[in-house]
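Researcher: I'm preparing a figure for a lab meeting and need a structural model of a single chain. I don't have an experimental structure, so a prediction will have to do for now. The sequence is pasted below. Please return the structure as tokens so I can convert it later.
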Amino acid sequence: MISYEDVRQRIERLPVSREAGSRNVEWITPAEVVGVARDTEGRLELLLRGAQLVAVSRSVNDASDYRPVFRDDRTSFEATRIVFPALMHFDQVAAFICIELLRNGADNDLPRAFARTEAIIELAIENLTLSNQALIGLVGELLLLEALCRRADDARVAEIIAGWHGWQRSARDIELWGTGIEVKTTTGMASSHLVEGVHQVERSDQEDRLLLVSIGLQRAEIDASNGFTVPSLVERIASRMGEAAVSPEVIERFIAHVAEYGASSGAGYDHTTQAADPAYAISFLTTFFRAYDMDDAAIRVLRSHDVAAFGHVVDASVRFRVNLAANGPVSMGNPVEGANQVAQFILGL
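Model: Understood. Here is the structure written out token by token.
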């Protein structure tokens, strides 16, 4: 029987699809029942060929669909498709699921093998998706912190780190010298983000301005020279703090705060023990880096006065999606584009 290591390596080598309507499918066995592919965003797809599979688990059912899959050679087949996030350790998880499906007889009786493996798929979707979301958020906030520390004078580095609150429950991800900063990170191709409460897009009375920093990520090719990982970002920030003569205690506190980010969903990253962990060796690239001044009248989103018209609605309970990059720049000078430019804008340089 094929080994886990072989499946994992084959999944890691999967190319990203060049077109939305076609896939380069890798079949795990010659029976061509269990296959894998990557969509145009680099997300891994588990393809189970045959009649539609109906999941008992609601989370598995929500994460799967039944559709025709078109291959690069223009042939097609019907399959139940389950999509995993593009980041973190889902390649390893998908490899394990493939092995379990085969061990349970997928090549001969796919519905029976799927039923026996569904609990493992459910565990991956419910727990690992949460940690993946936390990781994406952490990467975005670390990217902005690194850009700010790199552009700032030595005397301001400690203040920047002290202004980071995203590792805990707080009103703002970063607060610096009267500027509130919300960091939103996505693996999509546009500045489209879920907003939880109008306070995330509205300046408070204590703030001089509110910026929404929108960051796009994609998975980098192996050994990409311009790629970065979570450990490398933490190391860069800690190194910059050392150059700025920030005390070792403050550096240790920063690393401890990184470990607290997303820990409630099982995604805490401990730099002292996990820097070499393969789960955090995934390399990323930025596809865009933008800062939106949310006081701009051209940005038309829900505000507190809009919600106030509905007296029985609690502001903080309102969730909605904003598509800030759908039609290009909002107005002259907004957004600010590029990591260095955003950092300079925040620092007033």
